[in-house]
Amino acid sequence: MINQLTLIGVGLIGGSFALDLKQRGLVNTVVGVDVNAQNLRDALALGVIDHAHTEINAASVGAADLVLIATPVSTLPEICAALTAYLSPRTIISDVGSTKQSALNAFRTHLPQHFAYCVAAHPIAGSEKSGAVAAYTGLFKQKKVILCPHEQQDSGSLKKVETLWQAIGAEVHDMNVAEHDAIFAAVSHLPHLFAFAYVHQMLDNPKGTEYLKFAGSGFRDFTRIAGSHPQMWTDIVLENRDMLLKLLSEHLAQLAYLQTCLHNQDVEKLYQYFAEAKQLRETWGQSH
Ligand SMILES: NC(=O)c1ccc[n+]([C@@H]2O[C@H](COP(=O)([O-])OP(=O)(O)OC[C@H]3O[C@@H](n4cnc5c(N)ncnc54)[C@H](O)[C@@H]3O)[C@@H](O)[C@H]2O)c1
Ligand SMILES: O=C(O)C(=O)C[C@]1(C(=O)O)C=C[C@@H](O)C=C1
Q1: What is the DSSP string of 141-209?
Q2: Which of 54, 158, 250, 253 is most buried, by the most CB atoms less than 10 A from its CB?
Q3: Keywords in UniProt for this one (predicted)?
């Protein structure tokens, strides 16, 4: 139970977290801070937040027990720098960003006195939608949340954040930050790059829009995530750039292999390649 949550960035993820806490009676007051005034009006109307502010100041942050930063990952340094003047000594700071080395760097650099109370977190749940209007209760039910504890971590703050995520139905895992960024480069960031690239290829094809009139569920399934917010993904791929560059060059080898198989009309190799991928996808699908 917390008295005041201050949510910086009242969008899909932060808004859904606030709605879940409210529904379970785990928070008394939610204060929203966002740069988008219309989004704040939507959030108030939908009951996602109780009070709206467009700035970080004593009124929005001073009385917070927990400040949750749920903005695009590139904004963390400026937000942490702005927070430092207004935090109470024991306010817990956490985030939900998709890259975690960048979050820890921002906490360490811009909130050095408060670093022990900063908890880097990442819910593995979401969608291609954004804004307070997209927020809903139950988004995190039975979904994983990764916490990346650091060397100066206050154990009480870590426990508090863990308990809140568990209380709204999430399954919490602790993970080393480098491992986090390597895993999510492979299972989330790279697939988003492919989806954007694939849709872009249709844009670059003079007949692409004509062809798309005939596209079916294969195209729909493969490209849903290309509808995700461009700022969010520009930030993520730049923050995890080194891992992605490595994975992209490995993937070029996969494409080159397929190109060779096709060129040689190598039925056996193509069949084997598809069968191996199908097996892994089915095994994964049975447990997810
Ligand atoms: N969407 C997903 O599937 C998903 C899943 C897990 C984690 N995340 C991470 O969660 C974070 C938020 O993503 P989202 O999907 O909720 O995005 P969103 O676009 O729905 O919400 C972000 C909000 O932050 C606001 N904002 C932007 N800059 C700001 C600033 N400087 N100060 C205050 N508010 C600001 C925007 O106006 C917007 O309302 C991102 O860091 C993202 O990487 C997203
Ligand atoms: O379902 C989607 O649309 C998502 O992209 C969610 C998704 C993912 O890649 O699985 C996206 C980014 C996050 O950091 C976590 C979850």
Answers
A1: TT-EEEE---TT--HHHHHHHHHHHHHTT-EEEE--HHHHHHHHIIIIIHHHHHHHHHHHHHHHSTTHH
A2: 158
A3: Amino-acid biosynthesis, Aromatic amino acid biosynthesis, NAD, Oxidoreductase, Tyrosine biosynthesis
Q: Please name the residue whose Cα sits nearest to atom 2 of ligand 2.
A: 127
Q: Collapse the DSSP code of 123 into the 3-class scheme (helix H, G, I; strand E, B; otherwise coil) and give the result.
A: strand
In this structure, are 273 and 163 located in the same domain?
no
Mutational test site, ligand 2, from 100, 225, 228, max ligand atoms within 8 Å of CB: 225
Looking at the CA of 10, which ligand is closest? 1
Question: Atom 23 (ligand 1): residue with closest C-alpha?
Answer: 9
Would you say the C-alpha torsion 36, 37, 41, 47 has a positive or negative sign?
positive
Interval between CA 126 and ligand 2 midpoint (Å):
5
33-92 per-position pLDDT tens digit: 999 999 999 999 999 999 999 999 999 999 999 999 999 999 999 999 999 999 999 899
Determine the atom of ligand 1 nearest the C-alpha atom of 96. Answer: 10
Residue 228 has φ and ψ, to the nearest 5°, of -75, 165
Q: Could you read off the pLDDT of 101-139 as tens digits, one per residue?
A: 999 999 999 999 999 999 999 999 999 999 999 999 999
Last residue of some domain: 125, 158, 175? Answer: 175
Model pTM greater than 0.90? yes
Number of independent structural domains in the chain:
2
Q: Is 231 in the pocket of ligand 1 (CB under 6 A)?
A: no
- Name the residue range of residue 38's domain: 2-175
Specify the 3-state DSSP secondary structure of 23.
helix
Q: By three-state DSSP, how is residue 247 classified?
A: helix
Which residues form ligand 2's pocket by a CB distance below 6 Å?
Answer: 98, 124, 126-128, 188, 225
